[in-house]
Amino acid sequence: MEYLLLIYGDPTEAPAEARSDEHMQRWFTYTQDLENAGVMKGGNALQFPETATTVRVRNDETLLTDGPFAETKEILGGYYLIDVADLDAALAWAAKMPNITYGSVEVRPVVKFD
User: Fold this and answer.
1) Average pLDDT, the chain
2) Spatial CA neighbour of 94 closest among 7, 28, 27
């Protein structure tokens, strides 16, 4: 079953070491571990929220707003799409993420339409 692991965190609360080359290497290793386990389907880091544009259509008018949909301290920093046996396996992978001690990971099953 496929699960999306959504990576959240408050950049102001991340420890200074989170911006280090050593910490980035932990992310590369985590990604490689997913690939080696054969569960990695995709994933990307996202640019900061100030680069986002939110699109809405109301009364046939397209409205564009700079920034993310909601104002929050925690931002969506990226995601992984994995294919694992069950929710327990997805939760186990989420618990291994390098940011798990200062951020959070939302685990969501992907709907399969026939």
Assistant:
1) 93
2) 7
